[in-house]
Amino acid sequence: MTDDTDGDFQEHSDEAAHPTPALTASDASATATPRIGVCYFPEHWPRERWETDVEQMAEAGIEVVRMAEFSWGRLEPERGEFDFEWLDTAVSLLGDAGIDVVLCTPTATPPKWLIDEYPEILQAEPDGTTREFGSRRHYCFNSPVYREESKRVARRMAAHYADVDAVVGWQTDNEYGCHHTVRCYCDDCAAAFREWCRDRYENVDDLNETWGTTFWSQQYGSFAELHPPRHTAAEHHPSRLLDYARFANASVVDYNEMQAEILREANDEWFVTHNFMGHFDTLDAFSVSESLDFATWDSYPTGFAQDRNTESVTEDRLRAGDPDQVSLNHDLYRGPAGFWVMEQQPGDVNWPPHCPQPGEGAMRLWAHQAVAHGANVVSYFRWRRCRQGQEQYHAGLRKHDGSPDRGYEDAARAATEFESLGELDGVDAPVALTFSYDDLWALAEQSHSPDFDYWGLVGAFYRALRSRGVQVDVVEPTADLDGYEAVVAPTLHLADESLATRLESYVDDGGYLLLGPRSGYKLPGNRLQSDLAPGPLASLVGGHVDQHESLPESVETTLTYRGDAYDYRTWAEWLRPETADAVGEYTSGTAGGRPAVLDHDVGDGSVTYCGVWPEPELADALVTDLLDRGGVAYSDRLPETVRVAARDGHTWVLNFGGDPIEVDAPDGAEWHVGDASIPGYGVGVVDAAVTDLSVQ
User: Fold this and answer.
1) Is 691 left (phi over 0), alpha (psi -120 to 50) or beta?
2) Structure confidence at residue 23 (pLDDT)
3) Which of 384, 389, 316 is closest to 356 using CA atoms?
4) Of 582, 548, 534, nearest to 452 (Cα)?
């Protein structure tokens, strides 16, 4: 066992070992040739197997390997006794093969000896139950002890690998908040929450006013009286819940910043990233990413289609996933430096309700979809199916006996195709779609309907854009909107004057805004506006909301929009136009005859306010009208299982259905991948504009 503190392990630095330049923090935003990676756990396999594994990775065209995210117990089996020899060997083998290594801080899984020393680092449920050792993600972000222990292990690892050429960057921790672990309710969190509130509010009277604590006699006499929203007899105060969600998120942001600073102090050429999850509710990826060089996320299409989707699960979605659900996450995590998929589904997986085999070629299709949306690396999880622990039924690129699995061939083929595409610039999106975690949290607390789901509402508008072949940037409502021809805001539930001013400036200067229901209902503190909805957005909308209702699926919900009949679902607002024109009208129920959609010219631009959750036909009509106004080019409406995406002069045609399709492209168009006949779950890449293609 070694106790190396000097970072004296040396990696081979032969330039020939790295034919592809390593991505560093300084050039993370540069044009890149997309690459294939894999997640590897050498500690799970006999040492004599490692050389073969690395050789097979190189043969498959794998250029990036992530390791060590769950290795704390192996790296430090006893306090202060570090054993780096096994990881040094794996890093050296990979470096000699010309493969870049991304290491991880192993803080997602504190070892048993640490828990025994300091049981107070464990998380607590709202009812006080301790989240015990035996799984992962059992630590509290606000534990002072755990923060110090995290610093200690991160510093030790960073120092040890600071001068190792093959190590090009780091992933902090692993999947912050997985298994509902962003929000802890222990005594350390109680103390931290009080301090957070003291920093946020001038005094406790300011907190009481912002929250509205006269309701149910919930006033606080001092910050010392605050505690986490633990188990209660009835519902918690929604303002308290929202601030606790913000506080818990801020705790993760601070914890990540702490780790990122340690890594950069050791080597300022390393990039630092974190692997987020798909459709994840409790962590604001925008705020966490402020301390990252770029974001990564973990993509499992067949699982997400089952447990994170409001749409029906068809056979095709079981085999290839919901393309819009996956691409929404690609666009959410894509930043100026692009993004990575740190974990790409390699085959069948162990955690969703059902574990179907993906369609033939789907693992290659997903890699191309990610690259089309701006990914620079697609890394499959994992190299080999594990023979032990929780993930024995989770596929790898190779089976547990070492033989190639279905995903191996798909990954190898994708690697060859990416190399042929060469360097690609990032995605140039003409349309922005707003996404707010504050709105997500507030609406989750008071959905006012069992069917009202923030992700679902966002997805309805996003799907309409993608079905027209339009590339989309997913941005915060406070983002700079200059340069976007059009903006879609599925809802701006929490709104204040500053948000209204920014949007008014965008529209007045010639921008076009499509705004969805439940906008401007509440103040940022999660109280209703003093004025009727949409509150400070009323001058933009040119009217107010008179009434609202939520409706079950069994009730007929219809309207007309610009003279044509459409269906809507879940939510309806009776609008009162003032300076706006009513361009939509209810044709069913008590709302019949009342305005449902408003159109308002503002300066050189315009705003459309849709007071309902639109079904696909209505969403398409609203979006295409917006695109026409903004002068955004778009395609004919694509089949549900076909999507196109444009990046750096190339157009990807992605077939998420099991049946083959034919693509009509201009004469002379060059196909870089595939051809005009695309098989089920297949892909083609052609040098032609989206608008010049048609799919049959």
Assistant:
1) alpha
2) 36
3) 316
4) 548
Question: CA–CA separation, 299 vs 137, rounded Å?
Answer: 19
Residue given tokens 């032609």 in the structure block: 688
Q: How confident is the model at residue 18 (pLDDT cuts 50, 70, 90)?
A: very low
CA distance 588 to 86: 69
CATH class of domain segment(s) 431-630: alpha beta
Side chain identity at residue 314, one-letter code: T
What does 647-696 look like in DSSP terms, one character per residue?
ETTEEEEEE-SSS-EEEE--TT--EEES-SEE-TT-EEEESS-GGG-EE-
Say which of 11, 63, 76, 343 is annotated catalytic.
343
Residue 386's contacts (CB-CB under 8 Å, 6 or more residues apart) are: 41, 44, 392, 394, 396, 400
User: Residue 368: phi, psi to the nearest 5?
Assistant: -65, -40
Residue entry with tokens 């393309």: 323
User: Which two three-digit tokens encode residue 651?
Assistant: 């157009």
**CA separation for the pair 266, 156 (Å, rounded):** 10
578 is catalytic: no
Buried b (16+ CB within 10 A) or exposed e, 307-345: ebbebebeebbbbbbbbbbbbbbbbbbbbebbbbbbbbb
Q: Are 157 and 171 in contact (CB under 8 A)?
A: no
Task: Give the tokens for residue 101.
Answer: 């290594």
CATH of 1-25+34-184+248-293, one of 3.80.10.10, 3.20.20.80, 3.90.1300.10, 3.90.920.10: 3.20.20.80
Q: Do 512 and 606 touch, CB atoms closer than 8 A?
A: yes
| Residue pair 31/344 in contact by the 8 Å Cβ criterion | no
Is residue 541 a contact partner of residue 609, using CB atoms and an 8 Å limit?
yes
Q: What is the CA radius of gyration of the chain?
A: 26
- The DSSP bridge pattern shows strands 595-602 and 605-610 to be antiparallel
Confidence of residue 10 (pLDDT cuts 50, 70, 90): very low
Domain extents for the chain?
Answer: 1-25+34-184+248-293, 191-240, 431-630, 642-695
Confidence (pLDDT) at 20: 36
Q: Is pLDDT of 386 > 60?
A: yes
Distance, in Å, from the CA atom of 116 to the CA atom of 179, rounded to the nearest integer, reads 22
**Catalytic residue among 63, 69, 149, 175, which?**
175
Cα separations in angstroms, 551 against 449, 452, 518, 532, 554: 8, 10, 14, 21, 8
When pLDDT is cut at 50, 70 and 90, the band that residue 22 belongs to is very low
Element (H, E) at 506: helix 497-508
d(CA 361, CA 327): 18
pTM for the model stands at 0.95
343 is catalytic: yes
Tell me the C-alpha distance between 265 and 162, whole Å.
9
Dist. CA 379–CA 38, nearest whole Å: 4
In the block, tokens 């008071």 appear at 446
Task: Looking at the structure, give the CATH architecture of the domain made up of residues 642-695.
Answer: Sandwich (2.60)
Residue pair 58/96 in contact by the 8 Å Cβ criterion: no
